[in-house]
């Protein structure tokens, strides 16, 4: 099973957009809110190899990037390939 994680904040429109795409594609994901947790934000930055903006998205532990990166992967047909190859 593909493991998708997304670090988010509550009022982030990019987070909402990324979650909406994942839901539209029926991809289950674990949301990790970093609003009030410096430790989780630090974990996110470390895991994403320096990404400090939200969302930061991971598929089976691999950093995908943010919302724009996720949408670009979907537009190019690469998101489905990544999800299928990670199952």
Mind explaining what this structure looks like?
It is a single chain. The protein is α+β, with helices and mostly antiparallel strands and 87 residues long. The chain has one domain (4-85): Glutaredoxin, CATH 3.40.30. It is built from 4 helices and 4 strands. It has helices at 13-24, 38-47, 67-75, 78-85, and strands at 4-8, 30-33, 56-59, 62-65. It has a 4-stranded mixed beta sheet. Helix 1 (13-24) runs parallel beside helix 3. The longest helix is centred in the first third of the chain and has 12 residues, at 13-24. It is globular, with a radius of gyration of 12 Å.
Descriptive key words:
about 90 residues; alpha+beta; Glutaredoxin
Tally of separate helices: 4
- Total number of distinct structural domains: 1
Using the coordinates shown, work out and report the CATH topology.
Glutaredoxin
Low-confidence sequence ranges: none
Cα distance spanning the termini: 5 Å
Largest sheet: 4 strands, mixed
Provide the structure class: alpha+beta
Concise synopsis of the structure shown:
The protein is an alpha+beta fold and 87 residues long. Strands 2-1-3-4 form a four-stranded mixed β-sheet.
SSE topology:
Elements: E1 4-8, H1 13-24, E2 30-33, H2 38-47, E3 56-59, E4 62-65, H3 67-75, H4 78-85
Helix pairs in contact: 1-3
């Amino acid at each position: 099973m593909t493991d998708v994680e997304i670090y988010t904040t509550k009022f982030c429109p990019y987070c909402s957009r990324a979650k909406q795409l994942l839901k539209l594609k029926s991809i289950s994901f674990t949301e990790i809110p970093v609003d009030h947790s410096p430790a989780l934000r630090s974990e996110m930055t470390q895991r994403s190899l320096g990404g400090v903006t939200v969302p930061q998205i991971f598929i089976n532990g691999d950093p995908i990037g943010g919302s724009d990166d996720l949408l670009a992967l979907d537009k190019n047909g690469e998101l489905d390939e990544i999800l299928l190859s990670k199952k």
